[in-house]
Automatic annotation (TrEMBL):
Keyword Chaperone part of the UniProt annotation: no
Keywords: Cell membrane, Membrane, Signal, Transport
Localization per Swiss-Prot or TrEMBL: Cell membrane
Ranges of residues in domain ABC-type glycine betaine transport system substrate-binding: 56-189, 215-309
Protein name: Glycine/betaine ABC transporter
One GO process term, biological-process aspect: choline transport
Signal peptide feature range: 1-20
A Pfam family assignment: OpuAC
Organism: Shouchella clausii (Alkalihalobacillus clausii)
Source lineage: Bacteria, Bacillati, Bacillota, Bacilli, Bacillales
PROSITE patterns: PROKAR_LIPOPROTEIN
Length: 310
């Protein structure tokens, strides 16, 4: 069994995770009969109470496009009563869980695919001003020169393409406690025919190194761990590095990393893409990713406009 390492650098910590070498949209459904958390009968929180009690939008890291869009929304909708509180994806999820358990108002920066739309009863707020733009696409990007230097790996990452349902399956397994590598391995074991499409006709290599870089978002952890296993099946020794948004793009431009399947375009990572010299290999997800502001369904508001204090 080959052992690979996932380097977690987003918060300055180094964490070794082993990878074995063989291998949702916004409908809020999780495929079970149980209600998502937050679909309670405790009553709706009125718009007036929301405007009175709410002071922050709970966001993720400040370099993310969804955070920049949230700042734009605060300006576009004149939300002088609110500020954006940035942190990490995991901190945002914890704050969301705590607020829902207490049946309190909360607004979070949101994107899908993401497990939270299956775990909680959430809704996107309408965005008539278009602060968050339209739908997004998740792209694969690579350092320049990768195709000529590592043609086999380049071909695998270029072939990588899966569905939103596939991604949700891995994300939910991780959310329910599975190690990301183990969740990816289970998905590969159950979907080898899809992996075969990515590696079909690719020559094998003998332990050559290949590096994937990603931001520490649930969707990108899922896709990167699955792709790592596909690369291992053609003989690569794969390392995953988790960094912040800016360093992800810089590491590809500098050639320190080989590829990433974590580029959200044209909005979330648009400014990084415009300033970076990388190869865009195109869309890797069949679905309609989206970013915006989301709230629990017990909050009696439907639009970002409703957040403005009257």
């Amino acid at each position: 069994m080959n052992v690979k390492h996932v380097t977690m650098t987003a918060t300055g910590l180094a964490l070794a995770v082993t990878l074995a070498a063989c291998g949702n949209g916004d409908d809020n459904g999780n495929g079970s009969d149980s209600k998502p958390v937050g679909s309670t009968d405790e009553g709706m929180i009125s718009k007036e109470d929301i405007q009175k009690d709410l002071s922050v939008i709970t966001g993720i890291d400040p370099g993310a496009g969804v955070s920049q869009a949230a700042e734009r929304a605060i300006e576009d909708y004149d939300l002088t009563n609110l500020t954006l509180q940035t942190s990490s994806s995991s901190s945002m999820a914890q704050a969301l869980d705590t607020a829902i358990q207490k049946h309190e108002p909360i607004v979070v920066t949101a994107w899908n695919p993401h497990w939270k739309f299956a775990a909680y009863d959430l809704k996107y707020l309408d965005d008539p001003e278009g602060s968050f733009g339209g739908t997004e696409e998740i792209h694969t990007i690579a350092r320049q020169g990768l195709e000529s230097e590592k043609p086999e790996g380049y071909q695998v990452v270029d072939n990588f393409f899966w569905s939103e349902d596939d991604m949700n399956e891995v994300m939910l397994a991780v959310h329910e406690g599975a190690d990301p590598a183990e969740a990816a391995q289970e998905w590969v074991d159950n979907n080898q025919e899809k992996v075969d499409e990515w590696i079909d006709g690719v020559d094998t290599v003998d332990g050559e190194s290949f590096s994937l870089v990603l931001v520490n978002w649930d969707s990108e952890v899922a896709s990167s761990n699955v792709l790592a296993l596909a690369l291992e099946q053609v003989g690569y020794d794969v390392e995953l590095s988790v960094v912040e948004n800016g360093p992800m793009w810089k590491s590809l431009e500098s050639g320190d990393q080989d590829a990433s399947v974590a580029a959200w375009l044209p909005i979330t990572h648009g400014s990084f893409f415009d300033e970076s010299k990388v190869d865009d290999l195109g869309v890797n997800l069949d679905g309609e990713p989206r970013i915006g502001l989301a709230v629990p369904s017990y909050m009696d508001i439907d639009s970002i406009e409703d957040l403005k204090a009257e």
